[in-house]
């Protein structure tokens, strides 16, 4: 449901001429083999493995590690639980 609403909002802005950019914090390491969508936001101290697919308008929160060959859908928020190294994905 939330993903659908975010998608509609994004389409509406795009139709009005909104240009989407990506922001990757300088302390994060993103593999050169990663396929990145538009509107990606990567917070500090994140690491990605090779051959990952991150679709449009994804927010990767502070200190998240993404393993190789992961596929993160559009309009998703990825959080670390900060304790056990597990990921919390909000769609």
What is this entry, summarized?
With 91 residues, this protein is of the alpha/beta class. It contains one helix and ten strands; from the N terminus they run H-E-E-E-E-E-E-E-E-E-E.
Structural write-up:
- It is a single chain.
- With about 90 residues, this protein is α/β, with parallel strands linked by helices.
- The chain has one domain (about 1-10, about 20-90).
- Helix content is about 15%, strand content about 25%.
- It contains 1 helix and 10 strands.
- It has one helix at about 1-15, and strands at about 25, 35, 40, 45-50, 55, 60, 65, 70, 75-80, 85-90.
- The strands form 3 sheets. A 5-stranded mixed beta sheet has the order 1-3-6-9-10, with no helix packed on it. A 3-stranded parallel beta sheet has the order 2-5-8, with no helix packed on it. The protein has a two-stranded parallel sheet with strand order 4-7.
- The chain is globular and about 35 Å long.
- The relative contact order is 0.19.
- The mean pLDDT is about 85.
Q: Mind telling me the C-alpha Rg?
A: 13 Å
Beta-strand portion reads 25-35%
Whole-number mean pLDDT = 86
For the record, the count of structural domains works out to 1
- Helical residue percent? 10-25%
Strand count, sense and barrel status of the largest sheet are: 5 strands, mixed
Structure class: alpha/beta
Output the helix-strand order.
HEEEEEEEEEE
| Strand segment count | 10
In DSSP terms (H or I, runs of 4 or more residues), the helix count works out at 1
Span of the ends, CA to CA: 8 Å
Physical arrangement of strands within the biggest beta sheet: 1-3-6-9-10
Shape: globular
Low-confidence stretches: none
